[in-house]
Write a structure and sequence with these properties.
The protein has 119 residues and is α+β, with helices and mostly antiparallel strands. It folds into two domains: 7-46, no CATH class; 62-112. 35% of the residues lie in helices and 21% in strands. The protein is built from three helices and four strands. Helix 1 packs across helix 3 (98-112) and helix 2 (81-92) packs across helix 3. The longest helix is centred in the middle third of the chain and has 15 residues, at 62-76. The protein is globular and about 45 Å long. The relative contact order is 0.15. The model has no long low-confidence stretch (mean pLDDT 79).
Length: 119
């Protein structure tokens, strides 16, 4: 995400993970778990990306944005949707839609404050 590249997870389970570039530039990374620990080790890394930066990265889903916003809300408080979109664009160089920003804001606020179901 930080490098502006979009990857596709070909094989992803609790022991191993394989990711390739969505633009088929030849990038491949395979990692697996080390023993019984929560640590992963890179087993195979084939080349760097040869493709350009992706601004509309599909990997920036609502859960990832909400995770980023939780720490931001602890320090700043509430933000408008335009402020959320500008913050993600400025910090991570990723463009998100207003719907995705609103949904992520709702998820982040539910995890910080709680929702009426839990109360």
């Amino acid at each position: 995400m930080l490098n502006g590249k979009e990857v596709k997870f070909v094989k992803n389970d609790h022991k191993r993970m394989r990711a390739v570039c969505k633009r088929k530039c030849g990038f491949l990374i395979m990692v697996s778990k080390v023993g019984g620990k929560q640590t992963f080790r890179v087993k195979t890394l084939v080349g760097g990306h040869k493709c350009g930066r992706v601004f509309g990265n599909k990997n920036a889903n609502t859960d990832w944005i909400a995770h980023v916003l939780i720490y931001r809300f602890m320090n700043v408080g509430l933000m408008t949707m335009n402020q959320i979109i500008d913050e993600i664009k400025k910090t991570y160089s990723v463009g998100i839609t207003a719907w995705r920003a609103g949904k992520a804001k709702q998820i982040a606020m539910d995890s910080l404050v709680g929702d009426e179901q839990h109360q």
